[in-house]
Write a structure and sequence with these properties.
The protein has 326 residues and is mainly beta. It has 2 helices and 16 strands. Strands 1-2-3-4-5-8-9-10-11-12-13-16 form a 12-stranded antiparallel beta barrel. The protein is globular, with a radius of gyration of 23 Å.
Length: 326
């Protein structure tokens, strides 16, 4: 019953997006040959734009008594959007890509950051500040992540992938703030790599064991389905001149399993605009999900001897080239 409900919710959102896309295409009038000079301009119902940033960091050491390693790193960030608005209907689409590499002295090139997030949100205005809203959010990565020894894959494209399909209300008191509240949300965690799924990575059901306690390959679940409530808060504002803060918080509670344990994802990006092409940025991302187990040292002897939920923290800071396109 639960799986059928979640799949219906997912398919409903997909069909809503395609229906709106078809309607918006029909709204665009056919071109007119040699229009009269006094013809009024057709209002633009689409708004496209985004920013691209490349940050660099380099350290070079030669006969440095204090020690250390020469290094070279690069981080690319791309944020693009396409927003539709006509009458009471809105359709907001964003794509965020982040990819970084680092090269330490006498070591092979390694990945330092990897993120792909697509967010689609359709809204119909209910009042001056409230919108009936359907949202589909997908997060994954672009390329494989390996262990330091490069003997196995830790994560990969669609392993994991986190998908949230939600229906609710969106509160927009001003252009800076959006608070989306959904009492009906399906959360899907996909691990399409069967080996990782067999080990129960990222909260999916692990493979069954035989009579000797060995995992049976291919029996691990590659999809975890949850149903619960979801709150998404987005804030963007120029807090000082040429300093912009973007903050996004996601809160999810699974109604059917430990509803008091709230999954939290909180992202904060501060952009410092130096001039038209030069900028600096600080990004902090915190995650807590009690279904994702992290290696821990229970005995305090320096050896990882257990697993448990922990606060995950990522921070990146850089300065580099930036371009805003519209």
């Amino acid at each position: 019953m639960l799986k059928a409900l979640l799949r219906f919710l997912f398919l409903f959102l997909i069909s809503s997006y395609f229906s709106l896309a078809t309607a918006s295409a029909q709204d665009i009038p056919a071109p007119v040959q040699n229009p009269p000079a006094d013809t009024a301009a057709v209002p633009n119902i689409w708004d496209f734009g985004g920013t691209g940033t490349i940050n660099f960091s380099q350290v070079s050491l030669s006969n440095w008594a204090a020690g250390g390693e020469s290094s070279l790193s690069a981080l690319g960030i791309l944020n693009i959007y396409g927003n539709y608005k006509k009458g009471k209907n809105t359709w907001n689409n964003t794509l965020d890509l982040t990819y970084g590499t680092v090269k330490l002295q006498e070591q092979r090139l390694r990945k330092s950051d990897d993120r792909l997030e697509l967010n689609l949100k359709y809204g119909r205005q209910a009042s001056s500040k409230w919108f009936y809203t359907a949202q589909l959010n997908t997060r994954t990565q672009i390329s494989p992540t390996y262990t330091p020894e490069r003997d196995s894959v830790v994560s990969n494209f669609m392993a994991p992938a986190f998908v949230l399909a939600s229906i609710g209300m969106d509160y927009k008191p001003n252009p800076k703030l959006s608070v989306f509240i959904s009492p009906f949300t399906g959360k899907f965690t996909a691990v399409l790599n069967q080996r990782m799924a067999d080990y129960g990575a990222f909260g999916v059901e692990p493979a069954r064991s035989d009579l000797e306690g060995n995992l049976i390959p291919g029996t691990g679940e590659r999809l975890r389905e949850e149903f619960g409530g979801f709150v998404n808060v987005r804030f963007r504002n120029e807090i000082f001149k040429n300093v912009t803060l973007q903050s996004k918080a996601d809160l999810f509670s699974n109604y059917l399993h430990n509803a008091k344990n709230i999954d939290v994802s909180w992202e904060n990006l501060v952009n410092f605009k130096v001039n038209k092409f030069l900028s600096a940025s600080l990004f902090v991302h915190m995650i807590y999900d009690d279904d994702i187990l992290i290696d821990i040292d229970r005995s305090g002897d320096g050896t990882m001897d257990g697993k448990g939920p922990r606060l995950q923290l990522k921070e990146t800071m850089g300065i580099g080239l930036s371009y805003k396109f519209e």
